[in-house]
């Protein structure tokens, strides 16, 4: 993503005016307390009202994060620039109202929730810029960590922090929590890779450490603050015992309290200040930009699993690996965690055997700059391990798919507990760090506490090289006695980790609310007093995220605990982690998958209790659009969810079966007339003019919802497809989807996709064969989208017979030319609705495996944008599409668009969903990129509409770039 400005970055315009329709459904006259009402009225003049939320649905939905705490903000503000944040801070100071900043809401310890003002990062903060050929990355807090790494990938670099949530967590949270991760260790976290930082303090002052004039002005304007930091530094320097304690604590992973190592590591108070901001969890200021020094991302990687019969022996192996082996990551998985993943596929056989409580496993990864280096490292690690006599060893794999399987299992241990928890229980994850030489004792001590306090199902795993252990359990905190039991457990954990072993109560997840009452116990009176003074120096009114890190409430970890009541079996496993949100095209328009589940849980809870009838009535009025109608229901959320929840399935269930069953069955039985009628309508629309039809259909749709809104870039109707003559080559059955029989390729001509496909198949030595009466056939996908199941099943039955006849009962392969249709047909086969003998191929797979090797690429275009449709992602064939595109272009660009939101015919019915899903597309495409490609015809319509460039099919691209092969 580049840093081209957007029209709305001034904060004076509605970023996507079409979203006002969604906003109108969420506004409700809601009486705020007087101070908040005055604040709201003032901020309405600074921030567009479509990004200000006070209604019950929005505040509950946005107020949810991944932690086990629930606070509902009075006001939620989605901000796009520093000026808006400055205005918020000024008004909050004036009215003495607390403010909490939120990036992605994947924080686990309650540091991103508020019952006051919640400020959420908007699109204006989703920007990054690569500097010095990848040596640095300057990035704003709203960018997802994985996207930041995508910017750096061409340079062989990455940011140092690598939390397991990097695919959803944003830079703001990564920095504010000093997140680390699997390979990060203590050397590559934000603290140690920070180059520069831009921060807004509680008084509204901005310090940019990369700007010499900003620094010089700050030294004058905030002399007292800087002097205060110097004095605190001097106090630590003068206290040898305290100084040694600080050094010891930060030899471990440690995010408990403030990073007071900054007062020892640096002599300039500006450096002290910038590094204190790291890990400060929004309690000292707002970080609006950070510049990382990047680290090498070696292209050659290998992973292995090693099993040990005895925990002590396993931990001794960890020490040896830490001291002498070239390892990037060593993850410890205890016996209970091994048992928890024995239902996962793709692991070595020894992971499925019956194991004792003493067994432990290591997941090891090593990286190399080249294959030779990697092989030497693998051999060295193997020799180190031999001395500890592991009971089983998978050997290192360099296969990315195998390695990914190992790591997916490890990363899935947290949600695995959520997936198996009893309804109504809460999922808690904590992370502690022991000195590595006490790792085995720490594991045994924690396990004993699990049993002693009645949490025998708790899982234990973690980053063994750093002595960093995570434990996950699911307590039932519905009753006072259970809350008391949990409190006793946390106190015992603090005594074990902090007092007995001198470890860290929070290694990498941030202090939050859950450990705030124990900061003093871990650090002692002297260090805690310094931390309290730091908070007062930066935030004397205690308005920035109060009760996080520093709290005068000894019970804050026991208050406002989130309930997870039953809602529906489809989504009851959800732990509200938020990993799904990055893939959702309605994120920022209405609700995200996480928010849809939160709201439905609330509605079902109210329905069962019979309480708050007015609140429930309000939700019932507004949830149909915000939750059900504006859900793309493509299932992309399931691909990001650690336990595979498809929130779209719940939305389809809530929508109910189609009330137009008769019409749907008529359409299914008369598909040839439906496609012909649609072609005629498209031709008529082009006679009137695309722009005119766009405006006319918009107006008509307001009154008659059944009338589709035709986009200005609506393609022409496809001309009639002629069956190709057979030439005595290898036959392949070619099913042309109804959308490609109806809509032409591109936006100007009438040539169909089928013409390109036939040409391409013939170049590769195939004879395309149409199934009989193809004009009457449909895969059933349009009817599935409309919840017209009977019509869908009729279509599938007809298609099954035709494909069997054409393929000679499965002897010939079947080519499916539209990705969503291919996914639907393959699903139907898995469900037993299509004959298992049929050899089905989606376009990308067949083209890469059977066509590309048999044609000659005769020309390439310069730069090409590639969009992987949701269906291709779910089939796992996106890599084939990218490989095909790479063969036809000198450079490819894959924008970070998980789902475009066109969603079959939804792009014609709810164009704001498509506009929202693609709102970031244009700024991700450099001017040098003038061509795009995908493998879903409807997706291509929306992509063309919102990108400013033409998106073609992969078949048309290959046909244009290839000639007949040998």
From TrEMBL:
Its EC number is 1.1.2.4. It is an enzyme of class 1 (oxidoreductase). Keywords: FAD, Flavoprotein, Iron, Iron-sulfur, Metal-binding, Oxidoreductase, Transit peptide. InterPro entries: 4Fe4S_Fe-S-bd (IPR017896), 4Fe4S_Fe_S_CS (IPR017900), Cys_rich_dom (IPR004017), FAD-bd_oxidored_4_C (IPR004113), FAD-bd_PCMH (IPR016166), FAD-bd_PCMH-like_sf (IPR036318), FAD-bd_PCMH_sub1 (IPR016167), FAD-bd_PCMH_sub2 (IPR016169). Coiled coil: none annotated. Residues 563-594 form the 4Fe-4S ferredoxin-type domain. Gene3D superfamilies: 3.30.465.10, 3.30.70.2740, Alpha-helical ferredoxin, Uridine Diphospho-n-acetylenolpyruvylglucosamine Reductase, domain 2, Vanillyl-alcohol Oxidase, Chain A, domain 4. It comes from the Bacteria. Residues 69-297 form the FAD-binding PCMH-type domain. The keyword Iron applies. Its cofactor is FAD. Belongs to the FAD-binding oxidoreductase/transferase type 4 family. This is D-lactate dehydrogenase (cytochrome). It comes from Leeia speluncae.
């Amino acid at each position: 993503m580049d840093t081209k400005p957007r029209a709305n970055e001034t904060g004076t315009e509605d970023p996507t005016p079409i979203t006002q329709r969604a906003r109108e459904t969420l506004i409700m006259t809601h009486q705020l307390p007087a101070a908040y009402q005055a604040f709201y009225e003032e901020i309405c003049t600074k921030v567009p009202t479509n990004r200000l939320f006070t209604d019950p649905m929005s505040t509950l939905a946005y107020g949810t994060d991944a932690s086990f705490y629930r606070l509902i903000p009075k006001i939620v503000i989605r901000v796009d620039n520093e000026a808006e944040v400055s205005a918020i801070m000024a008004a909050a100071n004036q009215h003495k109202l607390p403010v909490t900043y939120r990036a992605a809401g994947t924080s686990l310890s309650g540091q991103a929730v508020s019952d006051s003002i919640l400020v959420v990062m908007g699109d204006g903060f989703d920007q990054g810029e690569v500097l010095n050929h990848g040596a640095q990355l300057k990035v704003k807090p709203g960018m997802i960590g994985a996207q930041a790494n995508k910017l750096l990938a061409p340079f062989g670099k990455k940011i140092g922090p690598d939390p397991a949530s990097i695919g959803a967590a944003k830079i703001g949270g990564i920095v504010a929590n000093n997140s680390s991760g699997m390979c990060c260790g203590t050397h590559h976290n934000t603290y140690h890779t920070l180059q520069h930082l831009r921060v807004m303090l509680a008084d509204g002052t901005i310090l940019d450490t990369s700007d010499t004039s900003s620094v010089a002005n700050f030294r004058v304007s905030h002399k007292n603050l800087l002097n205060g930091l110097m004095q605190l530094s001097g106090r630590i320097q003068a206290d040898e015992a305290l100084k040694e304690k600080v050094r010891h604590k930060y030899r471990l992973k440690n995010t408990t309290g403030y990073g007071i190592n900054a007062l020892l590591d640096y002599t300039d108070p500006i450096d002290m200040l910038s590094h204190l901001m790291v890990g400060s969890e929004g309690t000292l200021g707002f970080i609006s930009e950070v510049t990382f020094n990047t680290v090498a991302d070696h292209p050659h990687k290998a992973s292995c699993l090693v099993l040990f019969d005895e925990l002590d022996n396993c931990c001794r192996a960890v020490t040896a690996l830490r001291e002498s082996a070239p390892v990037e990551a060593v993850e410890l998985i205890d016996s209970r965690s091994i048992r928890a993943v024995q239902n996962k596929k793709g692991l070595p056989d020894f992971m499925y055997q019956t194991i004792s409580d003493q067994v432990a496993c290591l997941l090891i990864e090593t990286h190399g700059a080249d294959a030779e280096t990697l092989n030497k490292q693998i051999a060295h690690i193997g020799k180190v391990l031999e001395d500890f006599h592991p009971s089983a060893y998978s050997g290192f794999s360099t296969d990315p798919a195998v390695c990914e399987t190992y790591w997916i299992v490890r990363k899935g241990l947290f949600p695995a507990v959520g997936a198996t928890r009893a309804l109504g229980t809460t999922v808690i994850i904590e992370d502690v760090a022991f000195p590595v030489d006490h790792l085995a004792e720490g594991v045994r001590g924690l396990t004993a506490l699990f049993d002693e306090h009645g949490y025998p199902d708790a899982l234990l795993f973690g980053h063994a090289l750093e002595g960093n252990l995570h434990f996950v359990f699911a307590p039932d905190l519905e009753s006072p006695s259970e809350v008391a039991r949990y409190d006793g457990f946390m106190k015992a954990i603090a005594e074990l980790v902090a007092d007995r072993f001198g470890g860290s109560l929070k290694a990498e997840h941030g202090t939050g609310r859950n450990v705030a009452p124990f900061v003093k116990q871990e650090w002692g009176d002297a260090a805690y007093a310094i931390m309290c003074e730091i908070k007062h120096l930066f935030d004397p009114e205690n308005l920035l995220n109060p009760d996080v890190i520093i709290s005068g409430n000894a019970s804050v970890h026991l208050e406002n605990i989130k309930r997870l009541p039953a809602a529906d079996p489809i989504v009851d496993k959800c732990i509200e982690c938020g990993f799904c949100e990055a893939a959702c095209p309605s994120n920022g328009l209405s609700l995200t998958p996480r928010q849809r589940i939160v709201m439905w849980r609330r509605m079902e809870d109210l329905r069962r209790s019979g309480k708050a009838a007015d609140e429930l009535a309000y939700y019932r009025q507004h949830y149909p659009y915000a939750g059900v109608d504006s859900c793309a229901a493509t299932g992309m959320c399931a691909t990001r969810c650690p336990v595979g929840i498809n929130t779209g399935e719940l939305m389809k269930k809530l929508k109910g079966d189609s009330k137009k069953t008769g019409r749907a069955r008529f359409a299914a039985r008369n598909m040839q007339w439906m496609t012909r009628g649609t072609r005629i309508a498209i031709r008529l629309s082009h006679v009137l003019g695309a722009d005119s039809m766009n405006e006319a259909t918009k107006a008509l749709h307001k009154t008659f919802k059944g009338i589709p809104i035709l986009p200005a870039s609506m393609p022409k109707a496809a001309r009639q497809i002629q069956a190709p003559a057979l030439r005595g080559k290898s036959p392949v059955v070619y099913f042309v989807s109804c959308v490609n029989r109806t809509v032409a390729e591109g936006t100007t001509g009438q040539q169909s996709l089928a013409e390109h496909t036939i040409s391409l198949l013939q170049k590769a030595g195939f004879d395309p064969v149409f199934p009989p009466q193809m004009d009457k056939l449909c895969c059933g996908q349009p009817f599935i989208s409309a919840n017209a199941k009977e019509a869908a099943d009729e279509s599938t039955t007809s298609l099954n017979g035709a494909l069997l006849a054409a393929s000679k009962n499965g002897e010939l392969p079947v080519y499916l030319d539209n990705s969503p249709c291919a996914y639907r047909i393959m699903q139907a086969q898995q469900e037993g609705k299509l004959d298992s003998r049929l050899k089905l191929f989606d376009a990308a797979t067949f083209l890469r495996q059977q066509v590309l090797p048999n044609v000659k690429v005769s020309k390439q275009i310069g730069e090409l944008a590639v969009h992987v449709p949701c269906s291709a992602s779910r089939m796992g064939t996106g890599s084939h599409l990218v490989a095909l595109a790479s063969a036809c272009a000198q450079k490819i660009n894959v924008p970070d668009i998980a789902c475009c939101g066109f969603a079959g015919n939804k792009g014609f019915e709810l164009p704001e969903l498509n506009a929202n899903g693609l709102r970031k597309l244009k700024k991700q495409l450099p001017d040098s990129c003038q061509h795009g490609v995908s493998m879903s015809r409807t997706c291509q319509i929306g992509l063309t509409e919102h990108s400013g460039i033409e998106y073609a099919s992969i078949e048309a691209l290959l046909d244009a770039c290839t000639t007949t092969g040998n």
